[in-house]
């Protein structure tokens, strides 16, 4: 049997290690980019720079004293799966005429952020939006409520069973 010279073995060993490293890096990048459960916080740097605004909004939220109660159910008129929001003001009275903007995502698919379009129902202070929560587990909801020139923000993590589709 012929002996392989050292000037071939050692460079080959180093090239092999570099090749394995490049392969593992490629696999990691493909997994991170292709898997919907991996997500980067949108505008993270911008949000960090605006931290003082966030703290001020939290103060305004506390001052307003509005209450948001979220439940999963169905739109009364159509029985379509929906998110139901009950809004009350600081005195406990229903908050009517509000505009609600909301986004939500499942923790296992954080890249798939969806928006909700709420409409006021016949019951005062109750708003509904079609929401297809097609997997059980943890969902993150973020809401922005505007009424009478005031803005209230709200975040909630809900654990759900399968709702809808």
SSE diagram, text form:
Layout lengths: L5 H29 L9 H6 L1 H14 L2 E8 L6 E8 L10 E8 L7 E4 L1 E2 L5 E5 L6 E11 L2 E11 L5
Antiparallel strand pairs: 1-2, 2-6, 3-4, 3-7, 5-6, 7-8
β content, as a range?
A: 25-35%
Total number of helices? 3
Rounded to the nearest angstrom, the radius of gyration is: 25 Å
Helix content: 25-40%
- Structural class category: alpha+beta
CATH topology of the largest domain: Immunoglobulin-like
Corresponding CATH architecture of the largest domain = Sandwich
How many structurally independent domains? 2
User: What characteristic shape results from the CA principal axes?
Assistant: elongated
Oligomeric nature of the chains: single chain
Flag low-confidence runs: none
Average pLDDT level: 87
Strand count, sense and barrel status of the largest sheet are: 4 strands, antiparallel
- Total beta strand runs: 8
For the record, what CATH class of the largest domain applies? Mainly Beta
Order of helices and strands: HHHEEEEEEEE
Major beta sheet, strand line-up: 1-2-6-5
- The span between the termini is 67 Å
Description:
By secondary structure, the chain is α+β, with helices and mostly antiparallel strands. It has two domains: 1-34; 44-160, Sandwich (Immunoglobulin-like), CATH 2.60.40. The chain is 30% helix and 35% strand. It has three helices and eight strands; from the N terminus they run αααββββββββ. The strands form two sheets. It has a four-stranded antiparallel sheet, with no helix packed on it. It has a four-stranded antiparallel sheet with strand order 4-3-7-8. Strand 7 and strand 8 form a beta hairpin. The model has no long low-confidence stretch (mean pLDDT 87).
